Here is the input.
Amino acid sequence: MFEYKSDYDKVLDRFEAWWDAERPLLSISYPRPAAQQIKPPAKHHANWKACWLDTQYQVEKNVARIHNTIFCAEALPVAYPNLGPDIFAAYYGCPLIFGETTSWSEPNLKDWSPASLAALKLDRQNFYFRKTVEYSEALIAAGRGRFIAGYTDMHSAGDTIAAFRDPQQLCIDLIDDRDAVKALTKRITREYLETYDFFYNRLQAAGMPSTSWLPGICRGKFHIPSNDFACMVSDEIYQEVFFQEILDECAHMDRNIFHLDGPQNLRYLDQLLTLPNLHAVQWVPGAGHDNWRDWVQVYRKIQAAGKALVMYPPLNDLPDVFNALKPEGVWLSVGGVDDRETAEAAVKAVSRWGR
Here is the structure.
């Protein structure tokens, strides 16, 4: 089905078993031999914004990256229209600032007055919405029959409203104007799911599976719910204002991996694990806390709840992972592999663990 993933159908079957926590997965990749590689595009841009918004350049860079990589085991050749994590807020008029490796937004909701809220509209004629469509269509055209084009990294209502207001200001709003925040959260969640469907339908029509920055696949709608802003609020506010958006997102999809980011969000794990339509957790401890050994009890708790998980151990730590965890439902995303022999040895080791 895809030139750069000739066993795609078998990999899809293995993903479906992983979603049900029945087997492990392994994502591992390494460079294609130098003689077979192609040069990435070389182009000078006036600034980082011009670079990010140069659709042809970004597509050519993705094409070169995928061609120059061997995707082994369950690793997938995915390219998605990346314009930074606040792109969904930009569809409502948030200005974006671009740096070398990411973009960020500037607040655009000055207060909670009816006039300000009425002016806050999802606009499909907005520059960034049209740019995302352009970028998506270009990736679909370049990838058809070769690699997978995914949908953009859209953060949902909690993080989007934090972009509208600034996270610190939103903390104050949740004391002073909580009902207004709740009402906006409900509206943004509805419009978020409509936007997801817009891009999902375009990808499906082009024969692409549903995937994004976290390159999983399933038969149907795959999603990565999250709320990074939740680390800044109390358990009470999280439950009252934001938990329903997670329920609504999960209910809308066929398969969900929750992106749980940072130690201050770990307190929500127990509740998340009770959700029947949440299938997996990607636990991201944060910079300076990313030794997987420090979080074995977290991974075991996820497994005990019958959920799958994503983790990122170094290649040399695989034997210790095998001793610490059950294989069922563990997706090992392993970097640091430079050649075919090393990759094949890792695949064999995980296969033996899985049996």
Summary: The first helix runs from residue 8 to 19.
